[in-house]
Amino acid sequence: MITAVIIDDEALARESLQSMLKLFCPNIEVVGEAHDVQSGVNLIGDVNPDVVFLDIQMPDGSGFDLLMQFESIKFKFVFITAYQEYAIKAFKFSAIDYILKPVDPTDLINAIEKLNETIREEDINHKFQTFVDNIKTNKNSPQKILLKTLDELVVADINSIVRCESQNNYTLFYFSDRPRLLVSKTLKEFDDLLSGSGFCRVHQSHLVNLNFAKKYNRFPESHLILTNNEHIPVAVRKRDVLKELLKKLDKNRFIM
Prior knowledge:
Shape: elongated
Order of helices and strands: EHEHEEEHEHEHHEEEEEHEEEEEH
Distance between the termini: 62 Å
Structural class: alpha/beta
Strand order of the largest sheet: 2-1-3-6-7
Number of helices: 8
Largest sheet: 5 strands, parallel
CATH superfamily of the largest domain: Response regulator
CATH architecture of the largest domain: 3-Layer(aba) Sandwich
């Protein structure tokens, strides 16, 4: 049985979540509730739960403030939030589990299934620190990404990623400042995540950071030349998309 606490300033939200957990997630036992940051900190200290379901906005601070009061986070946590856009991007780039309000049963069940995965305390703290760093940048897009290999979690600067290459159910990352890395997710997942951060999937097997583009040759075979002189094939159906993105990045002069 997984022990849990719910921290949310809305009594109805706490009641609703607890009812859904009983109905859809019988392996979760709610052992306490709190309504703000301070009572939440006290509750966690008293009952030492396995997981904390945590609202973001509360009267005396945020869910982030609550987590930062712990020198080391020893429990798993799931944010229950109405936040959209940038904060959600930061969650995704930092591999932080979250559920949007109003809570959908399917999203809740998926979040609980993830809780069953074995995660080291060190990795939980890596996730949260990466999230905090991304939120603090005050830019339109997160600047760091958390990557899971078979052995560890690695924090990388997004701007240092040169390209990603599909390796079946894995993705091989190439960087400008570190050795390549084999990550335990598909290229499609990273395409969805990075497409708004200057990346373009130019080919079924290749996702490229266009900040490393040096030249785009359309003839005789369409390919992109990177600053490290690698030649990356460009699929026919991706040519127009790539041209438009290069223009937006003021790299029109590189199109040959």
